Amino acid sequence: MASGLMSNYARGRRGEELASQYLVSQGYIIMQRNYRELWGEVDIVAFRHGVLLFAEVKYRQDLTKGHPAEAITPRKLSRLRKAVAMYLASGEGPPFTALKFNAICIIELPGQAPQLEVFEDILGP
Fold it and tell me: Is 38 part of a structural domain of the chain?
Protein backbone atom coordinates (compact mmCIF):
# COMPACT_ATOMS: atom_id res chain seq x y z
CA MET A 1 0.00 0.00 0.00
CA ALA A 2 2.82 2.43 0.76
CA SER A 3 4.38 3.96 -2.30
CA GLY A 4 7.34 6.20 -2.86
CA LEU A 5 5.23 8.07 -5.40
CA MET A 6 2.58 9.08 -2.88
CA SER A 7 2.02 12.86 -2.75
CA ASN A 8 2.46 14.81 0.47
CA TYR A 9 -1.34 15.13 0.65
CA ALA A 10 -1.84 11.37 0.19
CA ARG A 11 0.84 10.60 2.79
CA GLY A 12 -0.84 12.94 5.25
CA ARG A 13 -4.23 11.35 4.60
CA ARG A 14 -2.72 7.85 5.02
CA GLY A 15 -1.17 8.80 8.35
CA GLU A 16 -4.37 10.40 9.61
CA GLU A 17 -6.40 7.36 8.53
CA LEU A 18 -4.08 4.97 10.41
CA ALA A 19 -4.09 7.25 13.48
CA SER A 20 -7.90 7.54 13.37
CA GLN A 21 -8.26 3.75 13.15
CA TYR A 22 -5.97 3.40 16.17
CA LEU A 23 -7.93 5.97 18.20
CA VAL A 24 -11.27 4.32 17.34
CA SER A 25 -9.79 0.96 18.45
CA GLN A 26 -8.98 2.67 21.78
CA GLY A 27 -12.60 3.74 22.22
CA TYR A 28 -12.35 7.30 20.92
CA ILE A 29 -14.92 8.97 18.71
CA ILE A 30 -13.34 11.05 15.95
CA MET A 31 -14.90 14.49 16.20
CA GLN A 32 -12.94 16.18 13.44
CA ARG A 33 -9.94 15.77 11.17
CA ASN A 34 -7.84 18.63 9.81
CA TYR A 35 -9.26 21.42 11.94
CA ARG A 36 -7.62 24.49 10.39
CA GLU A 37 -7.29 28.00 11.65
CA LEU A 38 -5.25 30.90 10.37
CA TRP A 39 -2.53 30.20 12.95
CA GLY A 40 -2.39 26.42 12.82
CA GLU A 41 -4.03 23.05 12.43
CA VAL A 42 -5.11 20.11 14.55
CA ASP A 43 -4.81 16.81 12.68
CA ILE A 44 -7.38 14.90 14.76
CA VAL A 45 -9.83 15.91 17.47
CA ALA A 46 -11.23 12.87 19.30
CA PHE A 47 -13.36 12.28 22.39
CA ARG A 48 -13.62 9.49 24.97
CA HIS A 49 -15.04 9.39 28.51
CA GLY A 50 -15.06 13.16 28.91
CA VAL A 51 -11.54 13.60 27.52
CA LEU A 52 -11.08 15.78 24.47
CA LEU A 53 -7.92 14.67 22.65
CA PHE A 54 -5.99 16.78 20.18
CA ALA A 55 -3.60 14.64 18.14
CA GLU A 56 -0.70 15.70 15.94
CA VAL A 57 0.00 12.98 13.37
CA LYS A 58 3.42 12.42 11.79
CA TYR A 59 3.81 9.72 9.15
CA ARG A 60 6.92 8.43 7.37
CA GLN A 61 7.43 5.85 4.64
CA ASP A 62 11.19 5.89 5.16
CA LEU A 63 13.56 7.34 7.72
CA THR A 64 15.67 9.55 5.43
CA LYS A 65 14.22 12.61 7.22
CA GLY A 66 14.58 10.97 10.63
CA HIS A 67 11.98 9.66 13.05
CA PRO A 68 8.56 11.29 12.64
CA ALA A 69 8.75 12.71 16.18
CA GLU A 70 11.68 14.87 15.07
CA ALA A 71 9.23 16.88 12.91
CA ILE A 72 7.38 18.08 16.02
CA THR A 73 9.24 21.34 16.45
CA PRO A 74 8.65 24.17 18.94
CA ARG A 75 7.06 26.16 16.07
CA LYS A 76 4.72 23.24 15.29
CA LEU A 77 3.73 23.01 18.97
CA SER A 78 3.10 26.76 19.11
CA ARG A 79 0.83 26.56 16.06
CA LEU A 80 -0.96 23.53 17.54
CA ARG A 81 -1.51 25.41 20.81
CA LYS A 82 -3.04 28.37 18.93
CA ALA A 83 -5.31 26.13 16.83
CA VAL A 84 -6.50 24.28 19.95
CA ALA A 85 -7.31 27.60 21.63
CA MET A 86 -9.36 28.65 18.60
CA TYR A 87 -11.16 25.29 18.53
CA LEU A 88 -12.06 25.55 22.21
CA ALA A 89 -13.19 29.17 21.79
CA SER A 90 -15.44 28.16 18.87
CA GLY A 91 -17.52 25.91 21.12
CA GLU A 92 -17.54 23.20 18.41
CA GLY A 93 -16.48 20.36 20.66
CA PRO A 94 -18.50 18.35 23.17
CA PRO A 95 -18.52 19.16 26.89
CA PHE A 96 -15.29 17.76 28.38
CA THR A 97 -13.70 17.20 31.77
CA ALA A 98 -10.08 16.98 30.59
CA LEU A 99 -7.86 17.80 27.62
CA LYS A 100 -5.05 15.67 26.16
CA PHE A 101 -2.44 16.61 23.59
CA ASN A 102 -0.76 13.61 21.97
CA ALA A 103 1.45 12.96 18.98
CA ILE A 104 0.88 9.81 16.98
CA CYS A 105 3.98 8.89 14.99
CA ILE A 106 3.68 6.24 12.31
CA ILE A 107 6.41 4.54 10.31
CA GLU A 108 5.22 2.42 7.38
CA LEU A 109 8.23 0.98 5.59
CA PRO A 110 7.66 -0.79 2.25
CA GLY A 111 6.47 -4.36 2.77
CA GLN A 112 6.02 -3.94 6.52
CA ALA A 113 3.05 -3.33 8.77
CA PRO A 114 2.76 0.25 10.06
CA GLN A 115 4.51 0.86 13.38
CA LEU A 116 2.67 3.34 15.58
CA GLU A 117 4.06 5.17 18.60
CA VAL A 118 2.08 7.55 20.82
CA PHE A 119 3.72 10.43 22.67
CA GLU A 120 1.43 11.78 25.36
CA ASP A 121 1.15 15.30 26.73
CA ILE A 122 3.21 16.98 24.00
CA LEU A 123 2.03 20.41 25.22
CA GLY A 124 2.78 19.53 28.84
CA PRO A 125 0.66 17.81 31.51
Answer: yes
